[in-house]
Amino acid sequence: MAGTGKAHLRDSPDVLLRVEDLVMEFPVGRTGLVVHAVSGISFDVLRGETLGVVGESGCGKSTTGKALMMLPRPTSGSVMFEGTELTALPPDQMRAARTRMQMIFQDPISSLNPRRKVRDIVREPLAIWKRGGKEEQLAKVDALLEEVGIDPQRAAESQAHQFSGGQCQRISIARSLVLDPTLIICDEPVSALDVSVQAQVLNLLEDLKAKFGLTLVFIAHDLAVVKNISDRIQVMYLGKICEVASSDDLYASPAHHYTKVLLDSIPVPDPEIAVHQVAIEGEPPSPVLPPPGCRFNPRCPAADDRCRSEEPQLREIATSHFVACHHPLVGGDAPVAVRA
Amino acid sequence: MSPQTQAASRQVDGPLLQVTDLRTAFRTDRGLVKAVDGVSFSLTRGRSLGVVGESGSGKTVLSRSIMGLLPKRNTERSGSVLFEGQEIIDLSLSERRKIWGREMSMIFQDPMTSLNPVMRVGKQLGEGLKIHLGMSNDDARATALKLLQDVRIPEPEKRLDQYAFELSGGMRQRVMIALAMSCGPTLLFADEPTTALDVTVQAQILEVINEQRRDRNMSVILVTHDLGVVAGHTDEIAVMYGGKLVEKAPTRVLFANMKMPYTEALLNSIPKIEDPSHTRLNVIPGRPPDLVNPPKGCRFAPRCSFAQSRCIEEEPPLMTAEHPEHMYACWYPVGSPVHRERSAQLAEQKVGAR
Q: Which one of B198, B232, B233 has the shortest CB-CB distance to A56?
């Protein structure tokens, strides 16, 4: 991987969000070192599309999600949302832009104020932006709470801790929808939930997306979950993009060795298959000193000298299927030499 | 005796752990919360048992009741827990301390909050060795290093002098495993050990636990909400719902022939990678029962697509299936005529809805 390149960007009037050369770096104390959280990635999301962003901890997927909201502003790069360049917006205009793009976080309980009634939490954005009178606001809040399956009466009387994790995530979703946004950034929205509740929340997101015409950026580490909800998936590793493809293509013919690893790591609920499945050893190296060349090369079974020196660029190997790898599993021009 | 050989050298006949009619309830303002309500099972030495269920099914309280980690205040406990033939349910704290670490230990879900943030990893690992096994400082450090090597942590010497915050989530969980392993326990509880970890690291951690189990002839109780996790890493599976054991079988038998509609529903709610994207997921409607006032009949009946009037009225006992080790608590199990008839109806409705 994991490379740079813009071959996968689409030239369409339906592009809602277009990110180019996004870089996010953070200083490490006073050491002079820098964490390269996101290192020059580009991607776009069409109106009504769900983009899945998948990768391990430290791959920069959450940082990317936050960078879209300018939380904080990226080190460099461009984020165009509904035709507006967000990185250059003054703070008050950025606040206004954030009403059009909302975020749902991983831990549903800690992302709700523990001391306030749930119905007030959901109403707060409307109160801040003074959208309509109080009655009007409450009517909208109650309608949305119904929509996500929370009893408005109970929401008016209860605080977040009186609800289960799945219910709190539904409340967070209602809050994110109250200002009629076009884009919802979901940062690991189901990883803290039980599988049975996870399925409920994923179905709910699909329903709401259809009903309100939403566009989603869905960030998660579980490829099975991401595949279920996404139209297009972008696989990230150590601050770079490895592979971009439609959900079904990515599963049917993964081209990047890292994508293959992620697919092979999904626990199979079948004891006949699942006996031995450590797909990869070790963990990603530190983003403070990322390896040269392809950033996946130290863990890649197909890495050679070229991978250690030259960074691969994203290129199209099949229709709408892009990979940043010198020796992809499919669509490569050179035979793949896999180390035993 | 070194901690590695300690577990293997004990020879006791019969099951390692025999739990009979274990009940744990908490006194709250709302009434008595019956978190574990009459659970019985046994576990043979060297075997691994997966305990599966949703949040609030009682799986965590079950493991903590066996280990004796729950506060005495406002907790009501009854039943019997035989460990190596000895009754341990009403041991005092000082007697428990002799068992913790040496006989049974636990790995928790969140390795960050379970490790001491201001103590170096090596010192934390050595603490138990010095207290429980009476080792000297030098021996404890050498053993700590050996333990870190056993759990295959990269650069183990360096880790001894690091703090938990300097390690990645996967490495912290390896330290937790080393810590739990340090005094050579015969029974290891792993409570959602991989839920906070990446999928790639999850497989590695489960493999390390399995490896340690084989090497030390240790028994493992793996508590999780994910049937996918237990499928490849356990010998037996116990499914819990509403504080009760509702199905228990050897892993392969369970997956080949599930009896409880709940077990099946739990399995079906996992997104399958081979399904096309945007496949509608199967959900279990509703929520787990209120354990203060659980439903009278089968506790899963209010959420079960196959429930009949008998399910609501009468609680099913644990029954034995075709396989003698396969138990389930359901009046109309998967494959029974009533279940088959209802499945056909549901399938028709689904087609009709389209």
A: B198
